[in-house]
Every structure is written in C-alpha cells, then in structure tokens.
C-alpha cells in the first residue's frame, strides 16, 4: 500500500493513496457543487433585481392611476354640482 505524507500544522500524517484519491474526488465534486451554487445565487440575484424593479414600476403606476382617478372623481363632482338644484328652505 502506497502512502502520502500530509502536514497539518507541525504534525505529519500518513495517508493511504486510496484515501487521498477519495479526497480528490470529493474535492472535485465539491468544486462543481460550489460552481453550481454560485451560478444559482447569481441567477437568483438577477431575478431579485428584476422583481424589485418590476414591483417599483407597478407601485409607481398604481400611485399615478389613483391620482388620475381622484382627479376624475373631483371633476365629475364639480360637474354634478352645476346640475344640482338648490335646496328649498
């Protein structure tokens, strides 16, 4: 059985090649997983920014629509006042 030397601080460890190979495989798998997670995080960040922009535009549009409707209501009330009969006293 072949052995590798591994250093951790001032301590020397002997590892079998099989354990070393498993560690390399795990390392490569973890690197791929990290890449996948980073890509997903970037995608989610972009999606979040788009959603924040869209909700801001929607809110602004709703606020302007409320102003427009308030203006229409005010205008209609003024028009209605012209046609109302004065109350009898």
- Report, as a whole number of angstroms, the end-to-end distance: 115 Å
- Major sheet: 2 strands, antiparallel
Please state roughly what percent of the residues sit in beta strands, choosing from under 5%, 5-15%, 15-25%, 25-35%, 35-45% or over 45%.
5-15%
Tally of domains:
1
Mean pLDDT across all amino acids:
84
What percentage of residues falls in helices of 4 or more residues? over 70%
Query: Which stretches of 5+ consecutive residues score pLDDT under 50?
Result: none
Keywords: Coiled coil
Coiled coil: 20-54
Offer a few descriptive terms.
two-stranded antiparallel ribbon, rod-shaped, 1 helix, 2 strands, 89 residues, alpha+beta
Structural description of this entry:
- Strands 1-2 form a two-stranded antiparallel ribbon.
- It has one helix spanning 17-83, and strands at residues 3-8, 11-16.
- The chain has 89 residues and is of the alpha+beta class.
- It has one domain.
- The mean pLDDT is 84.
- It contains one helix and two strands; from the N terminus they run E-E-H.
- Keywords: Coiled coil.
Short description:
By secondary structure, this protein is α+β, with helices and mostly antiparallel strands. The protein contains 1 helix and 2 strands, in the order ββα. A two-stranded antiparallel ribbon has the order 1-2.
């Amino acid at each position: 059985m072949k052995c590798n030397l591994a250093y951790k601080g001032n301590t020397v460890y002997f590892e079998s090649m099989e354990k070393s190979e498993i560690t390399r495989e795990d390392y490569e798998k973890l690197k791929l997983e990290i890449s996948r997670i980073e890509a997903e995080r970037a995608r989610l960040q972009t999606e979040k920014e788009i959603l924040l922009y869209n909700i801001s535009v929607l809110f602004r549009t709703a606020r302007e629509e409320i102003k427009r409707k308030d203006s229409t209501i005010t205008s209609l009330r003024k028009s209605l006042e012209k046609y109302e009969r004065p109350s009898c006293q």
